[in-house]
Amino acid sequence: MMAWSTAAPAISAAFLASLVEVVEAFTIVLAVATLRGWRPAALGTTTGLVVLAAIVLLLGPLLDRVPISSLQLTIGILLLLFGMGWLRKASLRAAGVIPLHDEEAIFAAEAAELSETARSRQRNLGWAAGITALKAVLLEGLEVVFIVIAVGAGRGLLIPAGLGALAACAVVLAAGAIVHRPLSRVPENTLKFGVGVMLSAFGVFWTGEGLGIDWPGQDLALLLFATLFLGAGLLASIFARKLAVEFA
Amino acid sequence: MKTMLRDLGAELIGMFVAEKWLAIAVLLTVAAAGSLVDFAGLNPLVGGAVLLFGCLILLIESVCRAAKAGAS
Fold it and tell me: What's the domain count of chain B?
C-alpha cells in the first residue's frame, strides 16, 4: 500500500525538478530548431531520449540487486549533495549574489554559437545542430533520471516518480507548442528553491534510514525536515544579502 | 564525441559537487552521524540530529561564505 505522505513529496519533487530541467533542455532544442529547422532538433532530441532510455533500462534492474539499506544510504548521500547544491545556488540567486537563470539569454547564446558555427563550418552545420540538441537532452535528462531514481527507488515509488517527470515533459512541450519561444516566465529560482528543499529533506531521511535511524513519525518526518531546510534556505538568503552589501 | 563525453563527466560531477567544501563537509557529517550510530553506542536519534542540524548549519555557512566571497 502506497503511503501518500511519502508518495506525494516524491511525485511533486520529480515533477518540479523535471520541469526545471526540461525547460532548460527545451530552450536549447528550440534555439536549434529556430536556426536550423526541426529535423536536426528532432533527431538530436530523439537520440538523446533513446540514450537516456538505455541508461534507465541498464541501471533499473541493478537497483533491485542492491540491499535496501545500502541503496538508501547511497541515494541519500547523493540526494543531500545534489539537493543542498540546488538550495545553495537558489539561496544565492534569491539574495542577488549570483544572477537569475535567464532562458532568453541562454536562447540567444545558443543561437549565437550556432550562427558562429554556421559561418566557420557550413557543411557540418546540421550535424552540429543535432549534436547540440542531443547534448542538451542528454545532460538535462541525466539529472531527471537521477531525481526519479533517487526519490523513487528507496520506497518502490519509481513508477509514480517517473510519471511525475513525464507529466513535467508534457507540460513543457504543451506550453512550448503554444508560445513557440523560450519559457522565460517559469519562476525557475522559486522552483529550484522548492525542489532543493524537498531533495535535501529526502536526502537526510534516506541517509538516516540507511544508517539505521528510525525517524520519529516515520514518513511524516519528511515534512519537518522540509520545513527546516526551507527555513535554513530563507535564513541563508537573508544573511547572504546583508553580507553581499557589507562586503561589496 | 570526446567533447560530449567530457561534458557528460563534468555534468555528472557538477550535479553532486556544487561547491567542493560543502560536498566534503556533508560527507564528513554523514560519516560522523554514522560513527555515532554504529560505534558510540548512543541513541541513533543523536546521530540523526547531528546529520540533520549539521546539514542545516553547513548550508547556511556555505551560502554566507559565497556571499562574502562575492558569489561562486
Answer: 1
Please return the burial class of A55, using the count of CB atoms within 10 Å of its CB with bins 0-12, 13-18 and 19+.
middle
Q: Which domain holds residue B64?
A: 18-68
pTM score above 0.90: no
CB contact under 8 A, A88 and B8: no
Q: Does any CB of chain A come closer than 8 Å to the CB of residue B19? A: yes
Is B33 domain-assigned?
yes
Partner A contacted by B24 (CB < 8 A)? no
Pick from A33, A47, A21, A46: nearest CA to A114? A33
Which of chain B's residues have a Cβ under 8 Å away from the Cβ of A144? none
Provide the ipTM. 0.89
Q: Which residues of B touch A225 (CB under 8 A)?
A: 52
Residue B57: inside a domain? yes
What does each of the 72 residues of chain B score in pLDDT, given as a tens digit? 677 777 777 777 887 887 889 999 999 999 999 999 888 878 889 999 999 999 999 999 999 999 988 744
Residue B3 domain-assigned (yes or no): no
